Amino acid sequence: MPVKRLLILILVVAALWSGYWLIGAAYVRNGIETWFAEREADDWQADYGDFRVTGFPNRFDMIWTDLALADPRTGWALTLPEFAFMALSYNPLHMIAVAPNDMQLATPLTNVTITDSDLRASLKLRSRKRLEVVRSQLSGDDLLVTGPESVSLGHLNLAMEQAEDDRNTYRLGALAQDLTPPEALKGRIASGVALPEMMQEARLDATVTFSKPWDITAIEDSRPQPRHIQLDQLKAQWGELAIQATATLEVDEAGLPTGELALQAKNWQALLRLAVETGVLDERLAQGTEAALKLLSGMSGNPASLDVTVAFRDGRTFLGPIPVGPAPVIQLR
User: Fold this and answer.
1) Neighbour tally for 38: CB within 10 Å
2) Residues 171, 187: Cα–Cα separation, whole Å
3) pLDDT winner (highest mean) among 53-62, 251-260, 315-324
4) At CB < 8 A and 24+ separation, what contacts does 71-76 make?
5) How many CA atoms lie within 13 A of 259 on its CB side?
6) Could you tell me the CA-to-CA distances from 98 to 63, 112, 147 in Å, in that order?
7) Strands of 127-168, DSSP E
8) 318 Ramachandran zone, left/alpha/beta (phi>0; psi -120 to 50)
9) DSSP secondary structure string, 15-38?
10) Helix ranges (DSSP H) in the chain
11) How many CB atoms are closer than 10 A to CB 147?
12) Where are the domains of the chain?
């Protein structure tokens, strides 16, 4: 091909690609601005200091400064000095999100500041309209959560992947390393138990079927709710405290589970106090649970260790044959 024709071809391709990028960037900007306007119409706080789309020619980089989102119905709010979504221009449904080194999070229970050295997430989505999550992974290093009490993490990794044969079902995984709990919490549960400064590692591996797929409506409307939980592994050890659990649970529309959880625990009384102090277990339920566990652990010959099946049925919790109180409500706000 003569050099002149080759040059013309290159210029035409470059012009077409530039046009594609400019049209795509305008589409992205219009979609983002429309979404924020719709949230404000729903009585959210949804504003930012500046928003721009950059990354020409190979990426669409969506960058916000002074971003603030708050949903008054759920009590969740997030404030970030800077936030970025980055997508390849030829594959805009595969994104990387980069968080700032500090942000503020408000929940129905408390307000916290989160700092990190590297916190980012990857997202593979389906459908530009619904932004349905096919696969996501979040990783962070040197996280510090500061609020009424502080918690730090050396490393955190969360992953979620949609099942190929059921778009409501996701495989979930979590890994937390070098977790330093609040000093006040450690002091409240450490009576008679040797606890190091750090929990070395905690793992979760589960498959959960939700009421609907995770997509943009999870932010705009309501969270998908668990309907079936297959807990393959929950494992954590903190010094002399250790816990392992597996479970198969069905969850109804009211959030009440039916099924069984197999639990193994070492120094279970301190773990029970930990569950109460962190709000996982209601104080009233804990009293009945502790009495039942004392009986069951005594029967095993080792009062400090447990190997028990926890059953949930008819809205109640049973330890072995012993009813100990109402079943927990499993709902995402």
Assistant:
1) 12
2) 35
3) 251-260
4) 71/44, 71/219, 72/43, 72/44, 72/45, 74/108, 74/333, 75/106, 75/107, 75/108, 75/333, 76/105, 76/106, 76/107, 76/108, 76/333
5) 19
6) 10, 19, 23
7) 132-146, 150-162
8) beta
9) HHHHHHHHHHHHHHHHHHHHHHHH
10) 3-41, 183-189, 217-220, 268-277, 283-300
11) 16
12) 1-115, 165-333
The rounded distance, in Å, linking the Cα atoms of 179 and 275 is: 16
Helix axes 268-277, 283-300, angle to 10 degrees: 170
Tokens 């301190």 belong to 270
pTM of the shown model: 0.85
Q: 3-class SS at 73? A: coil
- Cβ 62 vs Cβ 73: under 8 Å: no
Report whether 93 contacts 128 (CB < 8 A). yes
**Ramachandran bin of 120, using left for φ above 0, alpha for ψ from -120 to 50, beta for the remaining angles:** beta
SS3 (DSSP) at 65: strand
100, two tokens: 């700032």
Token code pair at residue 74: 């759920």
Residue 225 and residue 218: Cα distance in Å, rounded? Answer: 10
- The 10s digit of each residue's pLDDT in 206-242 is 999 999 999 999 998 889 999 999 999 999 988 878 8
Main-chain dihedrals φ then ψ at residue 73, nearest 5 degrees: -70, -35
Q: Whose structure tokens read 């997030």?
A: 78
**Tokens 């609040």 belong to residue:** 182
Distance CA 62, CA 55 (A): 9
